[in-house]
Every structure is written in structure tokens, then in C-alpha cells.
DNA sequence: TCTATATTTCCAAGATTATAGAAATATGAA
DNA sequence: TTCATATTTCTATAATCTTGGAAATATAGA
């Protein structure tokens, strides 16, 4: 993970429709959903949906699987983990920081 | 946390300069850094830096603290936690999912 | 008060992104 | 092969975002 990749990942999620798609797929689990099903649930036009799925796929946040005429998309949980690792890298100068030590650093990075 | 807020948060981080600022502040810890110090380290023009600090502050990702003539910014770890909670809400339909069960869901959401 | 330093606001130009209609492509079934 | 369904690509328009120079504002010290 590097800055460029992280920005692509974050930008992929920083959009109403794409965030909704991602969250829907996270909730759906490994099986995922076909494009048509996603479109129905979120009420998004074909072209728009396809555009956003491409963005998420390109970022590696979702996986694509073909099954007959249907294409299933599912969340890629690993990629999110990579991102989180990058964001909290070397937190607090690598010092051990206890929740009790300071309010602003309560057990999220440490 | 709701979709609108989450998008604002993600958009705040989905930009080279802002991600660099945020990561720098995460690494720096609760003390944070003054605007001038951030500008020096990242080599960003005053106006640009101020613009991005405002965005991050507005998103609640960083905290602002005045100390004499200096204004210190520091990472708000709690807000990042809120975001993560929202992203992984109801993962895998709420079912227990073991890493061993399926590759795509390896211990990140469960 | 006056001066120097720190930070923000204003502004305009350039770059990027989102949207959906229409056409193109891909797959399976008859 | 022919047809129906599923999904993607093409395209143009509209909207939003990023940048940094210059001016404005805020604070501390002399």
C-alpha cells in the first residue's frame, strides 16, 4: 500500500452510490450480488451502476465473478485491511499510548 | 454515523495532500503540529494547506488547538473508528464468519 | 502603539468527476 | 441461428474540486 493506491481506494468509497454499493456487498457477504440485483436494491441506472462498479473493482475493493449471464460482485475485505494498516502506520511515533494517557488517542490506533 | 457523514469523511481523506497531512498527524500523536511545521514538512503553499486543513477539520478527522500565535492540528482517532464501524456494519448478514470458512472474508469484518 | 510572524480568506483558472441516454457486446435458451 | 436478457462502453454536459498569489486577519513582543 502506498499513498497513490490509498487515495484511489478512498476516492472509490467517497461517493454516495459507491459507498452504498460497498456497504451492501459487505453486508451480503462472500456470495455477493449480481449487477441487476444491486441496481434494483439501490435504484441506480445501468450505465451509472456499471461506472461505479468499475471504479470499485479497479480499486480492488470488490471482487468480480462471472456465473452464466450474471456477474456477481462481492466485498474484498482484505483490501480494506490493507488500507487501515496504511492509515495507522507508525501511530503516535510508535510509542505505546494508553487510552488513559490522552483523550484524543483512545484505543483506536494503539 | 450516516452515509452523508461517511462520504464527507472519505472524501476528506481521498486526496494526496490531505491524506499526507492526516498520516503525518497520526504519526505525530496527540501533541500534533503547527500549521507552519506541516507546511514545511510537506512543502505545500499556505493557501493550499489552509484549505485542506479546513476540510479535514470540518470532517472531524483532525482537531484544532490554538497556542499563542500558533495553531496546532492533531489527529482525531475516534472519528476514524466511527467510520470503520459504519463501513463494516452488519457484515456478512450478521452471521458468524470464520476466516477458514471463505477466503474473501478473512478476519477483517468478523 | 508599531512590527514581525502565523494563518486564513478571496479569487480565478485549470483539472477531475458524476450522470444517464443510446449503442455495443456477451451469454444462454429456444 | 435467432432472440431476450445482462452488462459495459461511448459520449456530452453539468457539477465539483484543487491550486496558489495576493490581500486580510490575528497574535505576541518591543
Describe, in plain words, how this protein is organized in 3D.
2 copies of one chain form a homodimer. Chain A has 110 residues and is α+β, with helices and mostly antiparallel strands. The first copy, chain A, has one domain: Arc Repressor Mutant, subunit A, CATH 1.10.10. A 3-stranded antiparallel β-sheet of chain A has the order 1-3-2. The two termini of chain A are 20 Å apart. Chains A and B meet through helix 1, helix 2 and helix 5 of A and helix 1, helix 2 and helix 5 of B. The structure holds a DNA duplex (30 and 30 nucleotides). Chains A, B: It holds the Pfam family HTH_20. Chains A, B: InterPro entries: ArsR-like_HTH, HTH_ArsR_DNA-bd_dom, Metal_resp_trans_reg, WH-like_DNA-bd_sf, WH_DNA-bd_sf. Chains A, B: Keywords: DNA-binding, Transcription, Transcription regulation.
Per CATH, the superfamily of chain A is Winged helix-like DNA-binding domain superfamily/Winged helix DNA-binding domain
Number of domains of chain A: 1
Q: In CATH, what is the class of chain A?
A: Mainly Alpha
User: Which topology of chain A does CATH recognise?
Assistant: Arc Repressor Mutant, subunit A
Order of helices and strands of chain A: HHEHHEEH
Give a quick account of the main beta sheet of chain A: strands, pairing sense, barrel closure: 3 strands, antiparallel
Order of strands in the sheet with the most strands of chain A?
A: 1-3-2
Largest interface: A-B, 45 and 44 residues
- Percent of residues in helices of chain A: 40-55%
Write down the Rg of chain A. 17 Å
Give the strand content of chain A: 5-15%
The low-pLDDT segments of chain A are 100-107
How many angstroms separate the termini of chain A?
20 Å
Amino acid at each position: 500500500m502506498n499513498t497513490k493506491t490509498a487515495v484511489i481506494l478512498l476516492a472509490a468509497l467517497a461517493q454516495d452510490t459507491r459507498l452504498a454499493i460497498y456497504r451492501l456487498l459487505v453486508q451480503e457477504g462472500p456470495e455477493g450480488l449480481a449487477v441487476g440485483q444491486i441496481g434494483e436494491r439501490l435504484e441506480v441506472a445501468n450505465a451509472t451502476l456499471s461506472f461505479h462498479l468499475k471504479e470499485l473493482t479497479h480499486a480492488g475493493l470488490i471482487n468480480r465473478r462471472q456465473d452464466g449471464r450474471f456477474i456477481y460482485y462481492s466485498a474484498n475485505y482484505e483490501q480494506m485491511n490493507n488500507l487501515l494498516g496504511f492509515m495507522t502506520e507508525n501511530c503516535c511515533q510508535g510509542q505505546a499510548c494508553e487510552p488513559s494517557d490522552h483523550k484524543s488517542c483512545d484505543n483506536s490506533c494503539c
